[in-house]
Amino acid sequence: MNISEVLFWGMFGICVEVVFTAIFDLFTKKRIALMGHTSLWMFPIYAFGLSYGFDLAEIVIQNDIIRYLSYPIWVWMIEILVGYPLLKFGIRIWDYSYLSKQKQWKGIISFVHFPIWISLGIMVEYIKEILL
């Protein structure tokens, strides 16, 4: 993995999040301006998570279907490892607390996003295979 790939995945993650939040707000809040948002804190999370996390998942889990289904668990681990300590410092770079307690954990993990994390994982694998 070289620095250009790390930078690519950081920018990719930021762009995907901005598009996702814009579309999410369009459907949930009827905001037709399509103004997505993210935090610059997310850049290193995406850069290293997408660069190395998916490679690790492919090494650990060879079966495609099981690996796809495991992607939300990998994402939740990162959300806990990054989000929980930041929360202790009063920094909340994502917040799922708008969901009911059955659909989230401490505002850090969203169980609702399970299919989104699977889709993102498949998309990242496809991009890695085609482009990189």
Entry keywords:
two-stranded antiparallel sheet; globular; 67% helix; mainly alpha
Give a verbal description of the structure.
- There is one protein chain.
- The protein has four helices and two strands.
- With 132 residues, it is mostly helical.
- The protein has a two-stranded antiparallel ribbon.
- Helix 1 (3-29) packs across helix 2 (42-60), helix 2 (42-60) packs antiparallel against helix 3 and helix 3 packs across helix 4 (114-130).
Layout of secondary structure:
Blueprint: H1 3-29, H2 42-60, H3 64-88, E1 104-105, E2 109-110, H4 114-130
| Total helical elements | 4
Q: What helical percentage do the residues reach?
A: 55-70%
Distance between the first and last residues' Cα: 10 Å
**Structural class given helices, strands, pairing?**
mainly alpha
Order of helices and strands: HHHEEH
Q: Biggest β-sheet: count, sense, barrel?
A: 2 strands, antiparallel
Question: Per DSSP, what share of the residues sits in E-state strands of 2 or more residues?
Answer: under 5%
Strand order of the largest sheet: 1-2
Number of domains: 1
Low-confidence stretches: none
Calculate the mean pLDDT score and round it. Answer: 93
The coarse overall form would be globular
In total, the number of strands is 2
Radius of gyration, whole Å: 15 Å
Oligomer: single chain
Quick structural overview:
The chain is mainly α. 67% of the residues lie in helices and 3% in strands.
